[in-house]
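RECORD CONTENTS
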Amino acid sequence: MGRRVGLSRERVRVIVRKAGVTG
């Protein structure tokens, strides 16, 4: 279950990208 960190980091990147587009 070492992919949990990868998924978390990928999800954060998606949120940041969406926030940058809306901001």
User: Anything to note?
Assistant: Residues 12 and 18 are 10 Å apart (CA to CA).
